[in-house]
Amino acid sequence: MRSKFAIFALFTLALLSWGLYQALVGAPTEATMGPVQRIFYYHVPNAWVMELCFPLNFLASIIYLITRKPAVDAFAVATAEVGVVFCTVVLLTGPIWARPVWGIWWTWDARLTSTLVLWLIYIGYLMLRKLSTGGPNPVLAAAFAIFGCLDAVFVFMAIRWFRTQHPQPVFGGGANSGIDPRMMHAFLINMLAFTCYGAMLVWIRYTLERTRQKVDEAHAMKSLLHHEAGAK
Amino acid sequence: MISSPDNPAVVLNEVSKLYGRFAALRMVSGEFAAGRLYLILGENGAGKSTLLRVLAGLIEPSHGKLTILGSSDRKAVKPQLGYMAHASMLYDELSGRENLAYFAELYGIRDRAICDQAIRTVGLDPALERRVGQYSQGMRQRLSLARAILNDPRILLLDEPFSNVDVGSAKEMTRLLGTMRDSGKTIFLVTHQPALLEGVADESVCMSSGRVIERVAHHLSSLETPEAKR
Amino acid sequence: MSVLGILRVTLTKDLRMEWRSKDAINSMLFFALLVVVIFSFSFDLTAEESRQIAGGLIWVALLFAAVVALNQTWARELRNQVLDAYRVSPAPAESLFMAKTIGNFLFVAVLELLMTPLFIVFYNLRSVGPVYQLVLASLLGNWALVVNGTFFGAMSIRTRSREVLLPLILFPISIPALLAMVGATTSTLTGEGSAHLPLVFLAVYDVVFTLVGLFLFETVLQAE
After folding, report:
1. Which A residues, 112 through 141, put their C-beta within 8 Å of a C-beta on chain B?
2. Residues B140 and B128 sit within 8 Å (Cβ to Cβ)
3. Which CATH class is domain B10-89+153-217?
4. For a Cys-Cys bond, which of A149, A215, B128, C196 suits A58, CB 3.0-4.6 Å?
């Protein structure tokens, strides 16, 4: 297992490096937006990973409530934490990109708002786990994740329908309009690289959590079976 | 209800409760017959309250099996349980009667007379309009007991019912518990004052560090209990 | 002992207790008044601007006030560990959930009744669209706030920093409802755009989250 992970990690690192080169050097500078457009190679892949992590957490939460298996909860925590990290990156790179290009830091369009809401919800999820009395409460967190993800769907729809009077610049549409093949190349490499990176982080976090669970279980078992003098 | 070894009221099979690394209950096993009053004794942190809460269904055991009145279905058995903790589990803003009327409804009991009777049984006045928040500690404890016996449960779980009660009331409550035990109820009573229940308790269950370390049967002779029970 | 029967007695009990102590109502009222007044003199608006903004302001004020009420109603069950008495009994969890939600709904409705005239007065509001839509938005929006608030209130009683956690997890979840409420209110007040879509949206939101809450409440109640 360890060697498989090491190989995967090296592969990911290689991809990331190659992706970095392609993004900063290999791909040509975009005609209208200039060098700042290169953020696109990070913004979109990070968004993609986040969009994988949160639904996975949703599924894991449902499965956890049904089966109550600690491994499932470990996966849920991992995807939530990694998702929050990637979401933070998205929320930071978006405005950095938008400001020079479109002149605004932020707009309340459907995608941005639901991303922000998801971020808030998952911060709430992590805080719920942290602040539970008597140790993290996976049942409560799972229930909350279900509410949260359902809500994100509603947020998206709500903004779509109720906010049409504001200008709606479209982000992330760069891949559709006659894109230079070298840019496409850089983009795809980074997509792959970040997906692997995200998977690697989830794997690490999952293993960490699972190990912690097993250590606790082992301690608990030991204390259960430990015989004291005079015990029946 | 005849107590017989074939139909134990409660059967515990290696019941354990873990909080992270801390084991509050460790492989607790045992059979408890119906129609008996068990004293649960032990130092602080021995797991006495945890055991009671597991029996009450408030805590889910991490391991092990629990059979109450022949069933492992915790939901089905709820109407047969009565639980009393150190906290009063009563609404301070309501009167005694109002409190009991509400809790009775939770068990499907509509008859107000049952509530009044329960209040009288513990030595309080059902007509008392005062809010529970203004009761003395002893009165509150007694009302809490009334709440616990409201549904005429076959299994009574009492966590330190005498902690703030004066000796006289404690004696009365003890007598009441004895009567209930005689009618076939199984009573588990956590206490730090076992002397109060001498003459009524059938067995002492001693716990330490989450385990049951000893069970001592009491021999109740008619000399110790002036009122003949048989 | 039916689900509705227990709902009824729990609700009655809560209302009676609230009537006697007036804990929740008092704090909510005071808070709401404060919010209305502060907003009023912070924003000096023309009549037209008022109509654009009032929707949002009213709902923000209600959201804050509702959080105060929500904390109170669950805090009551924690005193003397009286919630344990419910959990030990065979009474269904769904009844408790519905009773608390309806109780909170009524408290917030009282607040709405008191705050709305104040808003109308301070902002010189006059509605262009039909008033029944405003009432409908109020009712549906109110339910949206309290159904989630009650559920998360139950969750947060098992946590530290309860007063902080409840708003933290409630606000993001309520955003779609807030958007729809504001949309419907503003459309009705200004007469621009239709309030139908937001109202239907709110109704769907209410139904979905009520069902999810009912489904998951027992799990949350029995979790330690």
Report:
1. 134-135
2. no
3. alpha beta
4. A149
